[in-house]
Amino acid sequence: MIEKLARMAMLYDFYGKLLTVKQQEIMELFYGDDLSLSEIAQEYGISRQAVYDLLKRTEKILEDYEAKLGLVAKFKEQQQRIACIGELTALAQQTANLNYLEKISEIIQELKDLERK
């Protein structure tokens, strides 16, 4: 469940502005403010089922955007490579091994290539 919450939060961060205002509001209330389906339904004067259906459709829309655009996957890949650069930099400083610098250079080039995609 926590993984789904984190995924939806990230998808919303990347693609939320592409949603309708109502979809944005419902997502923010459910995922951001941690309101229940019943609380959201009461606030909007709609049924709990209507809120559930809207959330499920909105989640699917966000997943579809990711499937087509892949921005979250690209971001995660970049974050992993940046973390690797940090680790290799620390190792290079500790050991004075210049081979680490070569690997850092390769990763930086991979990031540049990824940016062009």
From TrEMBL:
Classification via Gene3D superfamilies: Winged helix-like DNA-binding domain superfamily/Winged helix DNA-binding domain
Pfam family, one: UPF0122
InterPro entries reported in the protein's UniProt record: RNA_pol_sigma_r3/r4-like, UPF0122, UPF0122_fam_protein, WH-like_DNA-bd_sf
PANTHER family the UniProt entry points to: UPF0122 PROTEIN CBO2450/CLC_2298 (PTHR40083), UPF0122 PROTEIN YLXM (PTHR40083:SF1)
Family: Belongs to the UPF0122 family.
Functional summary from the UniProt entry: Might take part in the signal recognition particle (SRP) pathway. This is inferred from the conservation of its genetic proximity to ftsY/ffh. May be a regulatory protein.
The protein, known as: UPF0122 protein DCMF_07275
The organism of origin for this protein: Formimonas warabiya
